[in-house]
Design a protein that fits this description.
The protein is built from six helices and eight strands; from the N terminus they run αβββαββααβαββα. It has helices at residues 3-36, 98-119, 147-155, 166-180, 201-212, 246-270, and strands at residues 69-79, 87-89, 95-97, 125-132, 136-144, 182-191, 216-223, 238-243. The strands form two sheets. The chain has a six-stranded mixed sheet with strand order 5-4-1-6-7-8, with helices on both faces.
Length: 271
């Protein structure tokens, strides 16, 4: 082989080796760059909000069905959740726990009712009182109105509790009302917060309304909270008023009794 041919062959071989070295180096750089890059962290799916019960999801509620009688029945549902131990101004402007202020308002209503009942002794009037937090506790079983028994029941201090099961309280209240057989039925609920235990009061009240065709008048007093939490009441023969302090609570409760509940009790006797 002549020297010129040998020189060209060696040049080609050198270029091929250099090309292989450069290619290998490039692949190595790509690999190193790839290893240094962190894989994207998958984003966790946001937690699903718990399903909100609807009226359609509430099974039919078993209500007593005794023979009907002329008369009026009232059940008082009193919130005893921890927030009711917080203080607001009472009727005299002094800060005191809401549960104490509510007890005084109930005592006032019992006196008003007693005065009315003495003047209408022939009228049938039933009363029951239930405390509720995450559960329900009857402090005055539903029965013919007796001022001394009602006053003794109201004096009982609520047990410590937690939660606010308004839906459950509505069910228990309706059962107590229907057990009387009275043709006029009123449910009065004093609460300072939204329901946070069990089935929602919206769903429960719609189911009860469908079952009873709106036979029960539902009255809520939003004590130191917004009435907007109970907007569903307008669809179930209900109403809600606000009471920011003790003076307003007494006024709203007494007015409800004098202008709505007791004023209708006499016509019921004449039907």
């Amino acid at each position: 082989m002549n020297p010129a041919s040998k020189s060209r062959r060696d040049g080609h071989a050198t270029r091929r080796r250099l090309s292989c070295v450069l290619t290998t180096a490039a692949i190595g750089l790509v690999a190193v760059a790839g290893c240094g890059r962190s894989a994207p962290t998958p984003t966790a799916a946001p937690p699903r909000a718990p399903a909100v019960p609807t009226a359609a999801s509430v099974p039919q509620i078993d209500l007593p069905q005794p023979a009907q009688r002329l008369g009026t029945a009232v059940v008082l549902l009193i919130d005893i959740s921890p927030s009711m131990a917080q203080s607001v101004p009472d009727h005299a402007g002094h800060n005191r726990p809401k549960n104490e202020i509510a007890r005084e308002a109930l005592e006032r209503v019992i006196r008003v009712t007693d005065e009315w009942h003495k003047q209408h002794a022939d009228s049938t009037l039933y009363l029951g009182i239930t405390h509720f937090d995450r559960a329900c506790s009857t402090i005055l079983p539903m029965g013919p109105f007796d001022a001394s028994e009602a006053a003794s029941a109201v004096e009982k201090k609520p047990r410590p509790g937690d939660g606010t099961a308004i839906g459950m309280a509505l069910q228990e209240g309706f059962k107590a009302l229907y057990a009387t057989g009275c043709i006029r039925k009123h449910l009065v609920c004093i609460t300072d917060g939204e329901s946070n235990v069990g089935t929602s009061p919206d769903a429960v009240s719609h189911q009860l309304y469908a079952q009873t065709k709106g036979d029960v008048e539902i009255h809520f007093i939003a004590f130191d909270t917004s009435a907007s939490h109970f907007g569903f009441l307008k669809d179930v023969n209900g109403s809600v008023v606000e009471a920011a302090d003790g003076a307003q609570l007494q006024t709203q409760l007494v007015e409800l009794y004098e202008k709505r509940i007791l004023v209708e009790a006499m016509p019921a006797e004449k039907e």
